[in-house]
Design brief:
By secondary structure, the chain is α/β, with parallel strands linked by helices. It has 2 domains: 5-255, P-loop containing nucleotide triphosphate hydrolases (Rossmann fold, 3-Layer(aba) Sandwich), CATH 3.40.50.300; 269-507, Nucleotidyltransferase, domain 5, CATH 3.30.420. It is 35% helix and 18% strand. It has helices at 5-15, 26-32, 56-70, 91-108, 110-113, 175-183, 204-212, 227-230, 237-246, 248-255, 269-274, 341-353, 367-375, 388-403, 413-421, 445-453, 480-495, 505-512; strands at residues 45-50, 83-88, 124-128, 134-141, 154-160, 192-196, 221-225, 263-265, 291-296, 303-313, 321-332, 359-362, 380-383, 407-408, 423-427, 430-434. The strands form 3 sheets. The protein has a 7-stranded mixed sheet, with helices on both faces. A 6-stranded mixed sheet has the order 13-12-9-10-11-14, sandwiched between helices. Helix 3 crosses helix 4 (91-108), helix 9 (237-246) packs across helix 10 and helix 14 (388-403) packs across helix 16 (445-453). The two termini are 34 Å apart.
Length: 513
Amino acid sequence: MTASPLQRAICRVASGLPLAELEDHPDVLRAMGDVRHLRGIVPAELLLLCAIRSGKSLFASALAVYASQTCDVSGLRKGEVPRFSIVSTRKDLADVVLDDHLVGTLQSRPALRSLLLEEPRADTVLLRHPTGRPVEIKVVAGARAGATLVARWSAGVVFDEASRMVGASEGVVNLDDARKAIAGRMLPGAQIVNAGSPWAPAGPVYEMTSEFWLKPSKRLVVIRAPGPAMNPVWWTPGRCQELQETDPDAYRTDVLAEFADPETSLLAADEVAAVTRAAPLVYPYVPGQYYRAEMDPATRGNAWALVVLTTRRDAVQPGREVAVVCLARQWIGSSSKPLSPRAVLQEIAGILQGYGLKHAGTDQWSADANRDIARDYGLELYDEAATHADNVKAFMDLRTMVADRLVEFPPDPVFRSDMLSIRKRVTQAGLAIDLPRTSDGRHADYAAALARGLQHYVPAPAVAAPAAPPRDSIDRFKSREEREFAEGEARARSSGREAPRQASWLTRKRRVA
């Protein structure tokens, strides 16, 4: 693929070459500003904020080879081997630059292969400088105070995914200390390159961008490169529009190369209103319909929340299914008058019996104690361990289902308030979900129960509803999804610990589509 005008301009700026016909190109001016005063000057540092799929890793590998051939080694003593370092938030990410781009290109191009002094090792490539001296290109792990960067004279360094690296005040392994550590070890003309896609509006990369973007100097050039200007073959207008409509946050960071909003509501008020039914507040049990219950227990301050879910087939569009919140109920205690788990679980068991359910999902708060109590009332509880990534996925699935109108909420003002209070926060490590505590001590408790519940698909009846609920025999479930659901229920009843493992509601929907 032919390099775009902006890609060529970045290479010329990095190597101190004049931009020539690219000086007035609109993509170049928008990305880095006027750099004509830098003709013949190699900037000490580059900050390259790029859309994804725009050649960042390829640029880093090309820069490593270029530096190995142009670095000034005249001041080195005999036996000293300069190093070009590739550093990332995780070593396996930096390995992508070395293995997927650098090594493959060196070995496939005869002119470049002749530069190899030995076969590449797992994390190291040794190239011949024009003087005959070896220059090492090495993947190094981040370390406290940049310790891994001070062992050798440096021919340059690439901090891959620098936008996700924290500052000195946020961690002992950080971008600030690494840049300071290597500054005194740089050979004349060597360069620091920070590369990555924008992420959280915090940290060293965000601060550099805020202060120096469109203000290029010999000290630092900040380049913000959107996808269509870097890779128009991939980032077509159609693909950009599709991502903007399906995931505006990803479009902002991955295409426009802009930083994400620090904190936003997960669900918009008009979206929540669009999926809230006018009535009734509670749907009663319907024979032949399948149900699932999920609760979020608490005894002091937070609400003990319960939701009951089912799936409804659309009468107008038979292939369309909607997850329905049939019932949302809460119990609220306080520090002075905490809830009695026995009393609440007895009441929940009675409610669920009305839906033909003898089990419910729960989070891991006091799960063992609650399970023992619930069995006294014929109710089996199962808990399911969830990582931070699992929790984020559950809430992002909820967001997608609301946006696509694949879920129906009850007309409950507390339920609505919980949905609108969910916050999506961007951190250096990735997305985080916040459930703010309200003045009444609640913690968006319906939201937590609903998000977990939607991670398990509840099948809609494949045939007309029978006269009695078919939960007494797995053989009566006709479809594969219904059998999986019933088998999962049986596992839950027998173990009390293992949750059903059928696909999430949204995953199932996508599989069918």
